[in-house]
Amino acid sequence: MTNIDEEAIKIIAKVSQKNPGEITNNMKLFEDLGLDSMKGTEILARFADKFGLEVEDSILGKIFTVNDALNLLKKKQQKKGAGK
Amino acid sequence: MNVILEKCKVTYDTAEALKAGGKYFYHRLIQSPCENHVICEGREMIMMACNNYLGFATHPKVKEAATAAVNKYGMSTGGSRLICGTTEMHLKLEERLAKFYQTEATIIFPSGYQCVMGSISVLAGKQDLIINDYLNHASILEGAILSGAKTRTFMHNDMEDLDDVLSSTKNIPGKLVIGDSVFSMDGDIINLPEMYKVAKKHDALLMLDEAHGMGVIGETGRGAPEYFGLQGKIDIISGTFSKFAGAIGGFTASTKEVVSHIRHTCRSYLFSAAPPVPQVAGILAAFDLLDEEPQWLQRLWENTRFFTEEMKRLGFDLGFSKTPCNPIMIRDQEKTIRMNQILHANGIFAIAILFPAVAMKETRIRLGIMATHTREDLEKAIEIFKKAGKEVGII
Fold first, then answer.
1. Structural class in CATH, domain A3-78
2. Three-state secondary structure along B38-70?
3. pTM for the complete prediction?
């Protein structure tokens, strides 16, 4: 697990009010972690703050699991790196 | 079929299916005043779903004041206050509120929802940031959307999290932090002292929605500011008269500049007719009662303590409530519906709060305890809850 993954899981855990240790990659954000659109949007805003990335709210309809969220961050990081 | 009509048909079909299955407990027919007992669909029931906490909706002095006002002014001023003028009763209520919350000025609206939504919509703008408690009322969230401001959410009543959100948004100068004083679905109270400290630390304005706090918490019913010893310290206070006063209408209290800004720019104020004068008169009488008949507030809390202690003793999960607004947590959609059916059949007027209004694991029956409930009402209700809880398998 990368540092980014760890930080991202801390954010997901904070917003879903779980301990980071309880979060696994295959967990579903809405069904398993009880997120709703408000909390989902807040997670994206915290990703943007923490990692300096632009994350549009519309992406929320395309991520369903913790793994999806981590992959999204990886892609955004790669794009940011390529843009430098 | 037109797609708009198709959408309406889906809503219609869903509601009709629930009605056909005996699972629809909304918009029930009431044939009596909103008191501790109501006649619902021809049957007497114990009212346990309303927010008429102090029973002022039907207090003789409130009815007398409203009757005198309707005789003097009629029903309406004939349009908005901006265009058709304002009465001395509207001004008197605004002055009364300013004293009540120790602010410079207030503005009243015909409804609490349009007041909170409208006030927020003109206070913040595109360049600003609104930070909401996760459980804030829908009217606050609606106002934030209308304002065009960026919005962020801190986890419910978690002031460390609020501090983190504010620390990460230092580059935005116009920040407005908003919280309910008593949360309408859970009945818990905001940690106002910490929230105040954190907001001041980050130079953010603090706004409080006193809907379920006003007239209910604080030694003399002056809400969360009195409860926490922060009277005169909160930047903006909004609220409604539909709870403690048993009426309808809303208000925002703040500095004279903030109130003037709302009065001259807020569309839900400018383009609405004035609050009906009989309502205003009744609300003024409710304020008098709060000072002159403190026994109602005392009885409200005695009833709340008795009911909640007995329910907890029976094993019910009442969540985090600290007020007369009480959830009975069931955490299962079908069991919550079944519970509501049993309560209704046994003469308890309660309401199921279901998904999607709350998360699937948060479904509940929400209750409002009243000062006018008798001990006999509450004992009878507890017996029925016990029976229903056992049948559903939650106790």
1. mainly alpha
2. EEECCEEEEECCCCCCCCHHHCHHHHHHHHHHH
3. 0.95
